Amino acid sequence: MNTSILNKNIQDFISQNTGASITKLALQKNPFPEVDWILILNQIEARTKAKEKLPTWFLSQNIIYPSKVSVEQTSSEKTAAYKASLIEGKSIIDLTGGFGVDDYYFSKKFEVVAHCEINEELSAIVKHNFEQLQVENCTFYTADSTDVLHNLNQKWDWIYIDPSRRNDAKGKVFMLKDCLPNVPELLDFYFEKSDSILIKTAPLLDISAGLSELKFVKNIHIVALENEVKELLFEIHHNYKGSITIKTANISKDKTETFQFILGDQNEYASYDLPQKFLYEPNSAIMKSGGFDEVSKTFQINKLHKHSHLYTSEELIDFPGRSFKIEKVISYNKNEMKALINQQANITTRNFPEAVENIRKKWKIKNGGNLYCFFTTDKNDNKIVLICRKIT
């Protein structure tokens, strides 16, 4: 870890240039020739990335940032805080510590936090930053996490793991066995050290694929930030044999939308109807969950079609996603589509044979405006267009 960048003048320079063009700065002469210019530029770029994602770090003095990639790959503060709200206990060991954002929030819930990071420089950076952030209940281990678990030889209330994909796994179907550490292979060993394990995976992991590799899964959390799925969390408890609950959360600036259902519950049946007064589009976390029939039953609203995943009702309800007032429903044919030619509208397709780009080109529809058009299929298998105004 290069502490020369903690020089007050350099720190001031980094703060003053946060948000500036790195390309333009790189062409300038280094005002601090005693320190590597690339290192300073990296701090500026990483701090810029941290402004929205990691405000606690951004607003603190003498923070050292790792590579821009490490900042991009780390949890955001909002998702880390949500994660920490799900579990509790006295001790937790993070086997894939990284930049330590998750551990910062775990430290507020647990008496003892262990941060394992095989990268010596990154481990030193996190230790330094935690001192600046006044985190006093975290211990740092710079070694392979399997060795750390073995050598410490103690029971933990929780094990947390964020496995990373091996480079040779690119292009393959994403499986946990293709990651480091290899959780499926090590699971029995982990259960010798803790009865509760929380595994974070990238959103592109297929839920059924994760379940095929794991055992004793109690809850699966799908976490979205501003309607973009950021992570899946598999919550495992040793010897658990009950049903699996899918829990979704979409975290936005002013609220968190939540929804949950029992996976594989055969008693959930959707009801169907033609478009009524209002239209609902589930948030991305629910879309990832696949719980489409459950949405219909829970909120007592009708689906337009088995495969459309759009919902409708006569009365407006509070819904975890976008809500619209349906102004007009037209059939998708040349005669009725004349009403949209040369108009401006936001277009969404759900269970529809044509792509948005082709629809725009074919009917000369400009992007944007206050009109929202959903091209979809109704319960009678007719291709229709719902012309709407957004409510939320």
UniProtKB/TrEMBL annotation:
InterPro entries: PG_1098_Fer, SAM-dependent_MTases_sf, Thump-like. The lineage of its organism: Bacteria, Pseudomonadati, Bacteroidota, Flavobacteriia, Flavobacteriales. Residues 321-390 form the THUMP-like domain. GO terms for molecular function: methyltransferase activity. One of its GO terms (biological process) is methylation. It comes from Flavobacterium calami. The keyword Methyltransferase applies. This is Class I SAM-dependent methyltransferase. Pfam families: PG_1098_Fer (PF22013), Thump_like (PF18096). The keyword Transmembrane does not apply. Residues 278-320 form the PG-1098 ferredoxin-like domain. Keywords: Methyltransferase, Transferase.
